[in-house]
Design a protein that fits this description.
- The chain has 202 residues and is mainly beta.
- It has one helix at 114-119, and strands spanning 13-20, 28-37, 40-47, 50-57, 66-74, 76-78, 82-85, 90-96, 100-107, 110-111, 123-126, 133-141, 143-146, 159-162.
- Strands 7-5-12-9-10 form a five-stranded mixed sheet, with no helix packed on it.
- A hairpin with a 7-residue loop joins strand 1 (13-20) and strand 2 (28-37).
- The longest helix has 6 residues, at 114-119.
- The protein is rod-shaped.
- The model is unreliable at 1-39 (pLDDT under 50).
């Protein structure tokens, strides 16, 4: 027996040895021809120059198809573009740069829903590939919550500030018998917060 799927040519000629039982005292050996054209293969069995049987073989599969997953990332890292054979699986992994968080995942041009993104925070698996795919992962800067401690004065509403941006100076709090002076970074009130230059980094 032989497997034509392992052949790497389109036009082939094979010689096969076939044992033919004739009913006589001794079997004998007759060798003959495999004759092929592009895309097909036929085994012909001969005895005394007379063809006694013909078998058509499956079309040779000369090369497996390959498909590519094209990857793109914004503000992070991701698996490089990956090429695999048809029917295989491939998992794409990704992660954000420091101070970034997941913003959007787009697969084959379609954005994932928030629920889908929650299932694919770190990786996405393409299964049983039968075509090319694309995946784009985008990260955005994290946001920080800025709180204002008025030390017994009136309440001051906090702010949500994107990493690296400046907080907005709020209205001065009030406290009976006291005059507000300024905001500080630390509880010891030694390092002033300067709203025109200081940025929120944590």
């Amino acid at each position: 027996t032989f497997d034509v799927t392992d052949l790497d040519v389109a036009n082939i000629r094979l010689t096969i040895t076939v044992s033919v039982l004739t009913g006589e005292d001794d079997p004998f050996i007759e060798d003959e021809v495999v004759d092929t054209n592009v895309g097909d293969a036929v085994i012909e069995y001969y005895h005394n120059e007379e063809k006694i049987k013909e078998e058509k073989l499956p079309t040779p599969n000369l090369e497996k198809k390959k498909f590519t997953v094209d990857t793109t990332v914004v503000n992070g890292t991701i698996t490089d573009d990956t090429t695999v054979y048809e029917g295989e699986d491939v998992t794409i992994t990704y992660s954000p740069d420091e101070f970034y968080e997941l913003d959007k995942i787009t697969v084959d041009g379609t954005p994932l829903t928030p629920q889908q993104m929650a299932l694919h925070k770190d990786s996405y698996k393409f299964s049983d590939l039968d075509k090319d795919h694309t995946i784009k992962v985008e990260y955005k800067l994290v946001k920080h919550t800025v709180t204002f401690e008025s030390n017994g004065g009136s309440s001051v509403q906090g702010q949500t500030v994107t990493h690296g941006d400046k907080a907005t100076e709020p209205e001065d709090p009030t406290k009976t018998g006291y005059t507000f002076t300024k905001w500080y970074k630390d509880e010891g009130l030694t390092e002033e917060w300067k709203f025109d230059t200081d940025t929120v980094l944590e």
